[in-house]
Design brief:
about 220 residues, alpha/beta, five-stranded parallel β-sheet, 8 helices, about 60% helix, binds thymidine-5'-phosphate
């Protein structure tokens, strides 16, 4: 079982519980004896973490939308080439908190940048890697934003630049995640993340485990 490779991506809006789930799902898979790498975007490498700080501070820099897109892609190129591809080549289940689906939803639908440009950057610079399975944690923006703001305040994280954007932005992001899920229905599971976290984690662990088992058949 330890030689199984798979690229599983967690996507969703603010406060959908992805970060807790990254730990919860990874631990559950390790208990089943999979080799697991838990990672996230923007981040995942030293360069990606440096970019994360520049991109997410609510009290920091004010990026043009095109610059924001290029920095998200820059972090992803480092992450895929240095961390994700080597892990997949080495029999690892990579669980990643956000990937190109977030760029399509936030910089595409949210900011209004062309989807064709995002796809081209992804194909030409990132090498076109796509998730084997996407878990979409679908949450109502008003509920998710309230959760996220609470979490950032409690942890005193200055990472709230996207939380300061209007609810209409987050509604577009949510609609686009649902559009992507519909387009890639055979490799996406949608989970209702409006519920309390333990219910969400239990459903995600069950569905991912079932998906991994079905791949081995
Ligand atoms: P998170 O770690 O709480 O999910 O925060 C990451 C933020 O960055 C979140 O608001 C979504 C945003 N983001 C983009 O806008 N585009 C991207 O490509 C990625 C990976 C994240």
């Amino acid at each position: 079982m330890s030689a199984v490779s798979a690229f599983i991506v967690l996507e969703g809006g603010e406060g959908s519980g992805k970060t807790s789930l990254l730990g919860g799902l990874s631990n559950a898979l390790r208990q089943l004896h999979f080799n697991v790498l838990a990672t996230r975007e923007p981040g995942g490498t030293s360069e990606g973490l440096a970019l994360r700080k520049l991109l997410l501070s609510a009290d920091g820099l004010d990026w043009e939308h095109g610059a924001e897109l290029l920095l998200m892609v820059a972090a992803r190129v480092q992450h895929v080439k240095r961390i994700i591809e080597p892990a997949l080549a080495n029999g690892t289940v990579v669980v990643c908190d956000r990937f190109v689906g977030s760029t399509l939803a936030y910089q595409g639908a949210g900011r209004g940048l062309p989807v064709a440009l995002i796809e081209e950057l992804h194909d030409k610079l990132v090498g076109g890697l796509r998730p084997d399975l996407t878990v979409l944690l679908d949450v109502e923006p008003h509920l998710g934003l309230a959760r996220s703001v609470r979490r950032l305040e409690t942890a005193q994280h200055d990472e709230g630049r996207f939380e300061t954007l209007k609810t209409a932005f987050h509604e577009r992001v949510r609609a686009d995640f649902l559009r992507q899920a519909d387009k890639n229905a055979n490799r996406t599971v949608i989970v209702d993340a409006n519920r309390d976290y333990p219910f969400v984690q239990a459903e995600v662990v069950a569905r991912v485990t079932e998906w991994l088992a079905s791949r081995g058949r």
